[in-house]
Design a protein that fits this description.
Layout lengths: L6 H22 L11 E8 L3 H9 L2 H13 L4 E5 L10 H18 L4 E4 L3 H10 L9 E5 L6 H11 L2 E5 L10 H21 L7 E4 L12 H14 L7 E5 H4 L5 H15 L6 E4 L4 H8 L6
Parallel strand pairs: 1-2, 1-8, 2-3, 3-4, 4-5, 5-6, 6-7, 7-8
Helix pairs in contact: 1-8, 1-10, 2-3, 3-4, 4-5, 5-6, 7-8, 10-11
Length: 302
């Protein structure tokens, strides 16, 4: 359920809380990982939540897919996230997605050398994606994502060990309903430490690993997932075992229920607090003011 119309108040509350968290960390001398520059942008327009992606899928248009890829690359996206799944208003047959994915990959890679990310919990679709992805044309792709609750986790690790993609780990998966923030963030950190060890055992480097702390929705965050994400970012940045890894959030999730006129302010308010805590990558529409501003500058405000 979304409570519409509270975006401005939530943005102000988020900014105040985030400043408190950031200042507390600085006073204690525990903030050990500050992002040295603007975050990497993973462009999300190749997703059926966007009308342009739905049109490309419906018309089976190589040209429209190519335009979306070029457009995001021009705006500075360092990865292009590909999500061929259904939405609440747009149904996609999983078999159709698996069948059509190789051609879409070929079209995108013929258009730009920007690496792709494959956003799906479908193990078979990820296998098809990694099999057809041409590593001679683009750097390593981004597998989005794995989590401790994912079925057949051994098969996921076997796939990762074979193809060596970069990988997003859902840090707090299965913990979002926890009533105790401290306990849940500690458990999420433990999950990340174990995943980091196992992924490196599978042949990945720290630079290949991205941790997503999870992000709540402004206007409906009864469990406090937004401040919890900031706490977890801080813990991930402090952990010496995770040095060299990345931290990523899906910025659009934050404002899924926020009136359009307030989204930019809310997103900037979150980034203002999250970037100093170690966030160095965002999954976002690269057209949005927050994503563009994040690329232009980076400021630590206590």
């Amino acid at each position: 359920m979304c409570v519409v119309g509270t975006g401005q108040a939530n943005a102000q509350q988020l900014r105040s809380l985030g400043r408190s968290l950031g200042l507390l960390a600085l006073l204690r001398g525990k903030l050990v990982a500050i992002v040295p520059g603007p975050p990497l942008i993973v462009g999300e327009l190749l997703n059926h939540a966007y009308a342009r992606a739905r049109r490309a899928w419906t018309e089976q248009s190589d040209q429209l897919y190519a335009e979306l890829a070029k457009h995001q690359a021009r705006l500075g996206a360092r990865y292009l996230n590909v999500n061929l799944g259904s939405t609440s208003t747009f149904a996609v047959d999983p078999e159709d997605a698996r069948r059509r994915l190789p051609r879409i990959i070929s079209t995108l890679q013929a258009t730009t050398t920007t690496p792709l990310g494959f956003d799906s919990t479908d193990l078979e679709l990820q296998r098809i994606a990694l099999t057809h992805y041409d590593r001679t044309r683009s750097p390593a792709p981004l597998l989005n994502s794995i989590a401790k609750t994912r079925p057949h986790l051994d098969a996921w690790f076997a796939l990762i060990e074979r193809f060596k993609p970069k990988v997003i780990v859902m840090a707090a998966d299965g913990l979002m309903g926890s009533e105790t923030s401290v306990n849940s963030t500690e458990a999420a950190l433990d999950t990340c430490l174990r995943f980091a060890q196992e992924l490196q055992h599978a042949g990945l480097t720290p630079d290949d690993i991205f941790f997503d702390p999870g992000l709540g929705v402004l206007g409906h965050d009864p469990l406090g997932l937004i401040p919890r994400s900031l706490e977890l970012l801080k813990k991930l940045s402090e952990a010496p075992e995770l040095r060299g890894t990345h931290r990523i959030v899906g910025l659009s999730n934050l404002t899924a229920c926020t009136p359009k006129a307030l989204r930019a302010e809310a997103q900037r308010a979150y980034l203002e607090q999250a970037l100093p805590l170690g966030l160095d990558c965002i999954l976002a529409n690269p057209e949005t003011p927050a994503a563009r501003a994040a690329q232009r500058s980076f400021h630590l405000r206590a």
